[in-house]
Amino acid sequence: MQIGKEIVITRDAKPVAKLVRIDERPKPRKRFDPTAHAKWQRRIAGGKVSRWVDRAVREAREVRR
After folding, report:
1. Which of the two ends of the chain, N or C, has the fewest CB atoms closer than 10 A to its terminal CB?
2. Counting beta carbons within 10 angstroms of the beta carbon of residue 2, is it exposed (0 to 12), middle (13 to 18) or buried (19 or more)?
3. Whole-angstrom Cα distance, residue 20 to residue 6?
4. Cα(52)–Cα(40) distance, rounded to whole angstroms?
């Protein structure tokens, strides 16, 4: 196996594609922080509690029974 910068793929001696190495590795995702999320929710909702979520969860649980 050779490690090079690029590989050119040809058909009838004409280049049709080029493969290049990607050196970028994806950055790890941030872990979920429930405390920061709660702060974000309070900021976005203006301190109001969304009761519709509680009702939807309660209804979904009743359907499963």
Report:
1. N
2. exposed
3. 4
4. 18
Q: Which residue has the tokens 């280049």?
A: 15
Q: Whose structure tokens read 């301190």? A: 47
Give the C-alpha separation, 37 to 35, whole Å: 5
One-character DSSP codes across the chain: ----SEEEEEETTEEEEEEE---PPPPPPPPP-HHHHHHHHHHHHTT---HHHHHHHHHHHHHH-
Prediction pTM value: 0.35
Whole-number pLDDT of residue 1: 47
Confidence of residue 3 (pLDDT cuts 50, 70, 90): low
